[in-house]
Amino acid sequence: MKTVLKYTLFAIFATMVNIGTQYLTLRICSIDYGLYIAMAMGTFTGLLVKYILDKKYIFYFEVTTFREDTSKFFLYSFMGVFTTIIFWGMELFFNAFFSGDAAKYIGAVVGLSIGYTTKYLLDRKFVFARRKFTSGFRL
Question: The pTM is what?
Fold first, then answer.
């Protein structure tokens, strides 16, 4: 299966996990700032799912130690900060300027789509890049 198709399917799945978590959190947590709690919970669950899928099936990256896996996860998460700003910004924008409960979820899907595309490029270059070792000698 082509990488683009797999990445798209995984992004859709992670988006469903994210939105589903937000929906369930909002159903359980009906306080003034419930949307922000729901967004944080959705982001976390989506992040975990996406990290596992990307590492194993997109970049075929095998870690050898728990420390290496933890280090990769934190770097992966750090790269996600930029894309999360895009995602949250779109969700909050749609929630503020369009009426209806569906608006925030549509904004989330738009933001996640832009964010995941950007995230792939960042992850490929910085998180799961394969280093090429050379002897240091040039002929």
Answer: 0.76
